[in-house]
Amino acid sequence: MMRPRWEAGCLVVRTPAKINLYLEVLGKRADGFHELDMLNQAVDLFDTIRFAPRPDADEIVIHCDDPGIPTDGRNLVAKAWGLLRDRTEAPGVEVWIEKRIPAGAGLAGGSADAAGALVALRTLWELDLSGEELQALAEAMGSDVPFFLRGGRAVCRGRGERVIPVADEPPLWFVIHWPGFSISTREVFEAFEMPLTGPRALLSICSQELVARVRDGSAFFNRLEDGVFARWRRLEGLRRALVVDGCLSARMSGSGSALYAAFLSRDAGDELARVVRERGAGSAFLARGLPGWRVDRFGKERSGGDH
Ligand code: C5P
Description:
With 307 residues, the chain is an alpha+beta fold.
């Protein structure tokens, strides 16, 4: 995962989506961001990004099969390129993004692409970036980007950039329902009102407790649901429709619009994904939780077999 490979003259990276098993808002910060406590899980729903070096040019050209995604400087792949381009002599690159992760869905597809671009350009240009440098560059691109440097299951705090890996037990399967429209994260946070009861206690990062709470379903929670469901009223009904036998919990991911049901096995999810697809609103994906990965520091030697 996130390990770039050479295929037909292009460096290819597959970037996974994330799901929030838990999302609590602790408060609003002086910098306008919200202090969060999250339990994130990377899943095997991927975008694919291909990078071809263009030694004759010093610009980035981006193509994307989703016409809703900007291919200019607003694209996070272009931002990653902009942060690294001064470190190499021939920064020209042509990029093809194949989007499978719905945008504006709370699945962090843009952040995953940003992390994938950092890792791929580091490999392409043989940059000797330390883990700290990668983390700082990831943070500069967005709150969810650092999570994708390691993936798996992790407690994420601060804006989301403080990533604490946790045991990815029990393994999880998900039916992800994208309802057919996008929601802006910024708008959701701007409209967010802290409930009078105040936030819950911080999520325990004690493995045993976390594993037990995922297994019995009590870990699953999303503070942003009330505000989002009040404005997009169909979503609460769609969420409830995901609660079937064997489902640990059905929740919204991030700031929406995607909803998911979590399962301990693939079988129960299979049937639900079929039912949701037949209902016809948006699309449904069956996805598996991914274990964490290492983004190794790039040394002088390339790893074998990739070329
Ligand atoms: O960091 P990112 O660009 O992904 O965040 C998008 C928007 O979501 C921010 O501009 C901010 O309005 C909101 N946000 C927030 N608190 C966070 C993360 C995001 O208020 N922890």
